[in-house]
Amino acid sequence: METKIPNKLEETEFFKEHGNLVEFFDNCCREHKGKTAFESFGVELTYEDLSEKVDAFASWLSANFQVGDRVAVMMPNMLVYPLIVYGALKAGIVVVNINPLYTQRELEHVLRDSEAKLLLVWEGVANVAAKSDLANVEKVLVTTVGDLLGFKGKIINLVTRKVKKLVPKYHIDGATMFLDVLNSNEGSSPESLDISIESTAFLQYTGGTTGVSKGAVLTHRNILANIIQAFFTIDPKMYDDSRNEQRIAICPLPLYHIFALTVHNFMLFHIGGRSVLITNPRDLKTFVSIMKKHKFHMISGVNTLYEALLNYDAFKELDFSNLLMSLSGGMAALDTTAKRWAEVTKSVIWQAYGLTETSPLVSVNDYKQTEFTGSVGLPAAYTEIEIRDESGNALSETNAVGELCVRGPQVMSGYWKSEVSGLDENNWFMTGDIARIDETGNIFIVDRKKDMIIVSGFNVFPNEVEAVVNEHPAVLECGCVGVEGENSQELVKVFIVLHDGQTATEDEIISFCREKLTAYKVPKHIEFIKEIPKTNVGKVLRRELKEN
């Protein structure tokens, strides 16, 4: 594998070998055919087996749909997920990932907007699809957690349905079980397609934390670029010895999210790694028991996930001797979390920054970094970064604070069916994140532009306030928002969840903050609640906090 970074993306051996994601998939399956690609509930799926099943599904898709049609995929981490994604790509079909926690309204919006003709849905949320307007959907395939798991899968399905009662009753006219379709096409191979590198691979809908979600158009070129960009950033130990010892990565983040999708479905695939899929990371007992069975080299997560693991005693007893990478993204990792993680695992949290619209990787910490700094690292190869003021002017001063703007081969071509492309006339993407770049070139995210609170003309960034409040020993987690006070003045309010058995008063928290924050940043209101609302990857839903 190449380690030197050529001047141009097109000069990399990787781009010369892979003209689209289908060629990438086929090449990886040939090179690593005897290895395990994905594992779920102890059942392994090799690269070779995956290739055969992808061919079978792609054959069925080609017989029923046209190149360029959209297929919506709505399920948690399951062994069938990568099969479905690669099968769709091989048939020239665009993948539309959908959060399985979506409500009827959210599901209907994505189906209507994407004009998806096929919906693949996990039976546990099929009741939501059953009561939804399926718009342009022509066929529905239903998956189960036990698909591809053999006899063990039948037991898992029985427990899921009868014991845990996770499968509500539903009826969808004409729906077919996915496994029946797959089995009926066993041994089939699709016709080879001439897929352009500029063809759309994914419509990846933004999280919709504000307003209605939009579909970011990600091409084969975008994803291929991000695979090699990610590869150039990782510790060489992740692939130097991979011929002798396969690299094992724990995947608790949902594959339908762009972070896990690129890291596990593509980047790990490139180095012949094994992704151990965690279907329900909130079930910490099962999660940790799965980790215990592996000498894992990598884990990907977000701050809230790492916090949850650190607060679970059995996690601290795991063997971390092989752990090379603790990758964090999706939200800011807190210094307090990073310190605890390093103490327990002897591994530095390796923070990355990215967005749905950038496939997602934009920047990442240097793998040689020996301690957590709070930075999201240096720009990935072939990525340009600018910090701009409110008038759109580039700021060249070190540590100047402004909006982070990105340009590179991983940036989307635009938003699906939207008059707003999200890019300026020179193909710069305005991220909406406020950032600064220090003297070493490392990027620090200050906060989201839309989340900024203005107190008496001064800017207050919720991330900073949250980081301070989280240092209080009684605080488990918190969320900071701006609320309207007298004379329409904006005030700082913090919602707090306390550790079990801990107590704290509003005055105690405010006094604690006064010691660490400038006066205008100190919260004026504190509210103790039982749970902080979050997105599917653990980002605080400040909009919901404000509404409630």
How would you summarize what this structure contains?
This protein has 548 residues and is of the alpha/beta class.
Outline the structure in words.
The protein has 548 residues and is α/β, with parallel strands linked by helices. Among the domains are: 32-195, Rossmann fold, CATH 3.40.50; 379-449, Roll (Luciferase, domain 3); 452-547, ANL, C-terminal domain (GMP Synthetase, Chain A, domain 3), CATH 3.30.300. The chain contains 17 helices and 25 strands. The chain has a 9-stranded mixed beta sheet with strand order 2-1-11-10-12-13-14-15-16. Strand 24 (490-498), helix 16 and strand 25 form a beta-alpha-beta unit. The longest helix is centred in the N-terminal third of the chain and has 18 residues, at 47-64. The radius of gyration is 23 Å and the shape is globular. It is found in: Membrane. Residues 26-416 form the AMP-dependent synthetase/ligase domain. It is a peripheral membrane protein.
